[in-house]
Design brief:
By secondary structure, the chain is α+β, with helices and mostly antiparallel strands. The chain contains 19 helices and 20 strands. The radius of gyration is 56 Å and the shape is rod-shaped. The structure holds S-adenosylmethionine.
């Protein structure tokens, strides 16, 4: 037994209040195991954290309920029990019913419907299709809406029908795309609905109620409550069919076993009282010539270990023995007194009406389970009340024997207790087994998912490898282009340096302009001559230069070099150098031509300025 954990109980109250699911009557051991599984999956450290998680993630309720409401099921689950039910319960039940009367069946806790359709197949086989459609109603209920939806579809896969006899599959299922769907015309006789066994009202006038592998999830108190409802639900001679691990019912006064092994029970009418056992009349006595028999008989009677009292036919105390005196204080002093005046007539049990009944019916009655408190001791008694008849059959009196059954009662209690523990352990085992089956299925599907993911990863990996190879070769190509560029750049640098040296070595100012007259080159000598550094003039329009040279005068010269004809020319000019001294400058202008360029000044012009 698990101790109750207040945080866990608070979680159950929350589930009840927020979603109407009352799990408080479920066995704690299994329930806690299932909730703990969900907690591990969502990384909740304890019940309070899980409660917080549920408040923030409403989707978690569905996952939790799916985990708690174990829904393992199968067609003809426990085949042997179904065969027994058919032959020993349903056959006689149908025979005893008027030919046109309805047969009402309730499959409570039907999960995904296999049990309900099993019932439909069994009855259709017995009654024939037409009678089945006319007479049978199967109500199939569960608390789990998702399961009910599956059940309503009536469509099953290869795996679910694999243990069904092929003839039944042939007769009752339509096959399409690998799915097997239960016949629509018979499906109409099966009505699915949501019913919470803990909270909802039962269906009534039921002939056969199957509630298999569902009760075992509830604690004894809730089981008893549900059994009360089942008793109400069943018709007078209705039958209850439980799962093979469900045993506690054997203690219920509401049902009596028809076959305990197969867990088939009949409803007991409410006002049931166990019938009395009729004993044979005592053999006639005689003396056989022996003397002193009366005294011997009296002594034998007085010394009997059983407390005994004999009454006359008109209710007076005739004889009592020592054991009776020890037990109830009734002694020989009470002989001749009316029995009804003695406390014993109504304490510890009302005996007068049994005595009247014995006299009337002339048969022995037994009153069982009589509890008698003697000081601090409790004595359990069974009182046997028998009529005493004369040889002519007339009633002489009544004999009351008080059997002390305390020891056997105690043994029986111990036995029952041990039995209950055994049954509870068996139920626990069965529910653990079902949990394991579910877990196994879940693991199976996780393994399948992992296999798929693995395959996907494998192919992604291969793609990555190919991409990697392509990148490598692109990289190699880029590297070689880069190398070429580096070589070209260094050649260019060399050429530039060489050009720079040539220009610097010239004893004349040199300016190179592009076709738009923007200055591209300005050598050291030009800097010295006009006082402008190369950095200041590169990119400037040559004709806008503000230097001591009369630019306007050389404009035609430069234009001539740039024109289509590309003429070279020369001019002498008076100018002022950077120091402000008057100088004479010879300016020569030549078109700039690339090596493969045609005639004309398309590429610019070279202007050489030399002090004359
Ligand atoms: C293990 S299955 C049994 C299915 C089927 N009767 C069989 O024996 O194969 C138990 C079913 O009981 C249902 N159940 C659990 N608590 C319930 C409740 N309070 N009321 C109705 N059904 C409940 C679950 O949803 C689940 O479908």
């Amino acid at each position: 037994m698990h101790e109750t954990d207040p945080h866990f109980e608070a979680l159950l109250v929350y589930l009840k209040e927020s979603r109407g699911f009352d799990f408080t009557g479920y066995k704690r051991s299994s329930l806690m195991r299932r909730v703990n599984r969900r907690m591990t999956q969502v990384d909740a450290a304890g019940y309070p954290e899980y409660l917080d998680f549920l408040q923030v993630h409403p989707d978690e309720f569905t996952a939790l309920f799916n985990t708690i409401l174990i829904n393992v099921t199968a067609f003809f689950r426990d085949t042997d029990a179904w065969e027994y039910l058919r032959a020993e319960v349903l056959e006689p039940m149908i025979e005893a019913k008027p030919a046109d009367s309805m047969i009402r069946i309730w499959s409570a806790g039907c999960a995904s419907g296999q049990e309900a359709y099993t019932l439909a197949m069994v009855l259709a086989e017995m009654l024939g299709i037409e009678q089945f459609k006319d007479r049978v109603k199967i109500y199939a209920t569960d608390v789990d809406e998702e399961q009910l939806n599956e059940a309503r579809q009536a469509s099953y896969g290869e795996r679910e029908i694999q243990d069904l006899e092929p003839e039944l599959v042939e007769r009752y299922f339509e096959q399409l795309n690998g799915r097997y769907t239960f016949r629509k015309d018979l499906r109409r006789s099966v009505i699915f609905g949501r019913n919470d066994l803990v909270q909802d009202a039962p269906i009534s006038r039921i002939d056969l109620l199957t509630c298999r592998n569902t009760l075992m999830y509830f604690n004894a108190e809730t089981q008893a409550k549900i059994l009360g409802r089942f008793h109400f639900a069943l018709a007078e001679t209705g039958v209850l069919f439980l799962g093979k691990a469900e045993m506690l019912l054997s203690h219920s006064s509401l049902f009596t076993p028809i076959d305990l092994k197969r867990r088939v029970f009949r409803r007991v009418p409410r006002l049931y009282a166990p019938p009395g056992v009729v004993f044979a009349d005592p053999p006639p006595t005689g003396t056989g010539g022996v003397t002193g028999l009366d005294e011997l008989r009296n002594e034998a009677f007085a010394a009997s270990p059983l407390a005994q009292l004999v009454l006359t036919s008109d209710g007076l105390v005739a004889c009592s023995n020592r054991q009776l005196e020890k037990l109830f204080g009734v002694s020989s002093r009470d002989i001749g007194r009316p029995f009804r005046d003695l406390d014993l007539s109504y304490r510890p049990v009302e005996l007068r009406r049994y005595i009247e009944q014995t006299q009337l019916e002339r048969r022995t009655l037994r009153v069982t389970d009589v509890e008698y408190h003697r000081g601090t001791d409790v004595v359990h008694l069974m009182v046997q009340i028998s009529p005493l008849s004369g040889a002519d059959g007339s009633l002489l009196g009544v004999n009351l024997i008080f059997h002390d059954v305390t020891a056997s009662r105690r043994l029986q209690d111990d036995l029952e207790h041990a039995n209950q523990q055994l049954e509870a352990a068996y139920e626990e085992l069965q529910s653990t087994n079902e949990e394991l089956e579910t877990t196994n299925e879940e693991l199976q599907s996780t393994v399948e998912e992992l296999e798929t993911t693995n395959e996907e990863l494998q192919s992604t990996n291969e793609e990555l490898e190919t991409m990697n190879e392509e990148l490598q070769s692109t990289n190699d190509e880029l590297q070689s282009i880069n190398d070429q560029l580096r070589v070209s750049t260094s050649r260019l640098d060399e050429a530039n340096a060489f050009l720079e040296t040539v220009l610097t070595s010239l004893q004349a100012g040199v300016a190179v302009v592009d076709p738009d007259l923007r200055i591209r080159m300005w050598n050291r000598h030009a800097e010295d001559l006009w006082g402008l550094r190369s950095g200041e003039v590169i990119g400037q329009h040559f004709l806008n230069l503000d230097i001591g040279l009369p630019i306007d005068r050389i404009r035609p010269l430069v234009r001539g070099a740039l024109d289509a004809g590309g003429r070279s020319g020369e001019i002498r000019l008076d100018a002022v150098n950077r120091r402000g001294r008057a100088i004479t400058v010879r300016v020569a202008c030549t078109p700039l031509r690339s090596r493969d360029g045609g005639p004309g000044g398309g590429d610019g012009a070279i202007i050489v300025m030399e002090t004359a």
